[in-house]
Structures are given as structure tokens and as C-alpha cells.
Amino acid sequence: MASSKFDEVRDKVREFPLNSGVYLMKGPGDKIIYIGKAKNLRNRVRSYFTDNKDHSPKTRLLVQNILEVEYILTKTEVEAFLLEASLIKKHRPKYNIRLRDDKAYPYIRFTWGDDYPRLYLARKVKKDGSLYFGPYTSGFAVHGTIRFLNRTFKIRDCGDAMFRSRTRPCMTYQIGRCTAPCVKYISKDDYKAEVEGAKLFLKGQNKKVLKALTEKMMTAADEEKFEVAARLRDSIQAVKAILQKQTVINDTSEKDQDAIGFFGDERGCLIETVHVRAGRVIGTRPHYLPHFDPNDPKEDPREWLVDFMNQYFEDNFIPDEVLLPLDIGEELCKLMGEVLKERSGNKVVVRYASDERGRNLVDMANQNAEAHFLKYVSKSEEKQRGLEEIKERFSLPEIPRRIECYDISTFQGSETVASQVVFEEGVPAKEHYRRYKIRTVEGINDFASMYEVLSRRFKHTEYDDPNLIVIDGGKGQLSQAMKILEEIGRKDIPVVGLAKARTESDFQKQTVESTEERFFLPGRQNPVVFKNNAEALYILAGIRDEAHRFAITYHRKLRENTSLESELDYVVGLGEKRKKVLLTRFNSIDEIKMAAPDEIAALKGFNRVLAERILLQLNDTEEEEAEVEA
């Protein structure tokens, strides 16, 4: 920061109020680069502008870029915490700790407030009257659990639209796996009584579940309903088998807990959360923070740990108790507990894990953090080598830490849309994804559509500029993109065209796509080609594929009456023959979504990779609620 500007901002800060609130630090282009909260705004913000050699390198770099500081007053310190988290989520400041998960972890949503509740996979916890359980480690685990509970407790598995429109029971009723609430074969109260066992199971009250199932089995046997008794016997065995696979921490506890651990060095830090529900460990969740060293003596562990909790519990399930690996002090623990209580509506205890049982959980979190850290660092270093190769092969002025790719998609000659996908440090940055519905172009005109998209994109000065733009296409599309960037005054941004080489198959006598990706650069005649196993190729082809996926799923959002066939059309790599096989094997889109990967992979013409791709793309609707239309 220039000396005169530094003095100007410092003098302004001296007049800040002594109240609690949130402060927003801005850099060039009026961009918010850091957001913090404080019990005393003046004292907290002034500490940045003191000649303090104890500041970490990150803090010194932050101060050098501050051109303006604004504040928002709050009535209480708790309100400051809540406001800070929501503002960080909205603005994603450069110098804040940023949680960068690859995906939203899944929960089981039980619509207990409905007349006839149903189980869903959900990516977000909402205050909608439903019960949420999780988070779980994978969508496949959730689907497996839902499928088990549906069969064991005869929970309906049809969608709400189908449920309301049915006039007679479906096949699920015929085979004894549903009680046909859709046609009122069972009352609301009786249905809830039947499915309550699933709720007890998810809450960890397993003894009650087994006792209820055993009583029903004995009653059915006494009444000589031997088929019913046999099904209940199988259900009891299935429940016991599931329980044997779970790690038991405390078989008598009904308390939900999250234990936090961490591991890191100068390369970064990985924070791990271990999730305990009703005394059983249901999963762990890693959070990798690049370029952050938790062992740096100039970093206050109390500050970064509280910042992590404040952001993490903004969107995720809040347990009854949070166990910490560091002693942040009784006052901060109490304050954080009040913040989480304000969000959840329930009492939340935040404490240092000083007891043996708590230490065991935190030790588990620390061990997982160390193992995952080594994996993430290896992956991060590999991505870095890929970005350096892209810089070298494309003769870029700097490493392309932010890459943007655009895809224009037109469905059946109408509804032209575009997607903007962003990779940061070689991995998807989904918070920066944008959708565009083309407004000024009629019919199919890719040049005009791309002109509109890029014009709208670069009007957003609050977005960081890309170090590289990838265009899906060859020399023609590259030439168009260069012309557009020049017309909108952004020809300083490097751009490359990506196209697959097409070859003639002697066996089939038809044109097919080969695996070779060719990259066209401005002013160069011959394309650049990477080795098939190059990380640079994985990054560039990955962002192109992701842009294509994101664009075509936007069509799904716009088309309200999408049929099963057209929804399958959106799955990349699923042709007509394979689609027919799926439609023959499964009766509905929900049935496909609930299928196990191995079940799909076993079909003729399918494999495990394609099966997982189908399930991921059909089940991405919840996750995409977080992706923003520009």
C-alpha cells in the first residue's frame, strides 16, 4: 500500500466505533479481499496497521493491498459471527480461510412433516420440517441405506408427482415392499407407525428397532402369517448386519458429536471432522486449506480454528457437541456455542476434548487428517506441475491459476444457454460457476451468443480475471473468441481452442472420435498436443467436459416437463442403445437413481465407470442449487 494511502486508511480506522461488528477490507477494483468480525471494531482493525513484526506473511500481504475499510455494526458479538459467515460465503474474499470441498456431502432427508414421509438424498440441510441425518461419506452409501430402509420398513419410494397421480398400487406393493399409501390402503397414522422404525434406526435407537421388529415377528407367527414373519426375520438379520459394520464409540449415548482434528506444514493444512451420531461413527470429512501453515508461530490457532467452525457450520448439520483439538479458552467456547445455538435452535456445547473419550475422538480426527493431508498434498503438487506445463506449452505470461471455459448449448433449435466453468489451482471452483440464458440472439448463432456471454461476463469487475480462457472448438472458434475479446477490450487475456482429432475407422467405415485432444493457439499453425497421461491434459479436457455438463443440465432446469428419455439424454456418454437397455431394466428415473453402481455396471454394454457417471449426473440436481445464474 502506498504510504499516503496507508496513512489515510489508518487515520480513518482511528475513528471507528468501539462496538461489535464486521469489517470489510477492500483492494484494487473495490473488491472485498478480507472480512472479519470483532467485539471492538476500532481496536481490532487498528491492530492491522501497527508496525508489528509479529504479523504473519499472509497478514502483511493483506495489509499491503488494503485501499479501503468499511464496517457494519451489530448488536452483539454473536450477530457479528453470523454476519461474517454469510458475507464470506457471498463474497469469497481472497485472504479469508476458504473451505474448498470438491462436493457437497450427502445427507438422508426424512420428510417427517409430510402425511406419508419418504426418504431422499439431500445435499443441504434446510429448515423445512424434515429430519436430516448425516453427513455421509458418499452418495452411494446414502442410496444403499435408503434402499435398505425402504425395503425393511415398507417406505414408499415413488416421487411425489407419481404418488399423487396413482389410481392403483404399483409393483412395489405387489411384491410386499410397500403398503400402497398412494391409494389409501393404509391410513396416515398407521403408515407413520410402520415407518417410525426407520427414524429410530437413523437416530441410533437400535435396541428399540430390534425390539419392535421382534414383537411384530412373534405376533405374525402366532397368527400363522408365516410369510410376514419370515420377512420380518430377514429384516432383523439385515439390521443386525448393518449395525455390526458401524464403529461404536458409546452404545448408550444418543448425543450427536463432531470432533475436529488437523495436520499440516508449510505446504498447507487439512482439517478433519469426525461425525458421531448416537454413539456411532458414520463418517469423516476432510477440508484442505492450501498455503496455510497451522504451525506458523505467527498464526493464532484460536483465530483460524474459530473461523473454520464459523464457516463450516454455516451450511452443515450442527450437532449437540463439538470437540476441539486445541484449548481456545472458555470464553470463546461459550461464544461459539451461542453462535451455533442461534443457527440450530438447540443447545450446543463447544469444548476442548480433555476427557479420555473426547481425546480418543480427536485423536481419530488427527490421524485421518494426517493420512488425507499426504494424499491432498500429492494431488496438489501434481496439479501444480500440470499448470506449469500449460504455462510452458502455451507460452503464457504466468501460471494459469484461474482458468475459465465457456460452452454454448442449444436444445432442438431453441433455448440457447451458456455455461461458465472455473478451475482454480487445477480443480473445479463451483462457487464461481455461472449460467447464462441468451437474451439477444434468436435461433442458432454461436458467434453472437458467445459475444453476449463474454460481454456480460467481463462487466462483472468483482470477478477475478482468468489467466486463461478455454474455448471448445478449433481454429474457427478460436478466431471468433479472439475477435470478441478484442471488441470488448480484453484482448490481454490468453485464449486457446480445444478440439478432438477425428479419424476414420477402417473397421466400421465411419468417423469416430479419437482420444487425441488438440489445442490451437493464436498465431500458431500447428496445434499443441499433450501426452495422454499428462496432468495438463486432464485439467484442460476436464474443464471442457465440465462446461459441457453444466450447460446441458441447465436445459434440464429450464424444461419443466422433462421426460425420462430426455433426462437420460443429458448423461454424457450414454447412447441410444445403452439408454434402451436402461429403460428396459428400470421402470423410472427414481429407480435408476436408487440403483447400485454394480447393478448398472452388470448390464450389457455398461461398465463401472459409466455406471458411476450415470448416477452422479442423474443425482446432481440438489448440488446444483448452489450454482448461480449470472
From TrEMBL:
Transmembrane segments: none annotated. Pfam families: GIY-YIG (PF01541), HHH_5 (PF14520), UVR (PF02151), UvrC_RNaseH (PF22920), UvrC_RNaseH_dom (PF08459). The UvrABC repair system catalyzes the recognition and processing of DNA lesions. UvrC both incises the 5' and 3' sides of the lesion. The N-terminal half is responsible for the 3' incision and the C-terminal half is responsible for the 5' incision. It comes from Bdellovibrio reynosensis. SMART domains: GIYc. Residues 18-97 form the GIY-YIG domain. CDD domains: GIY-YIG_UvrC_Cho. This is UvrABC system protein C.
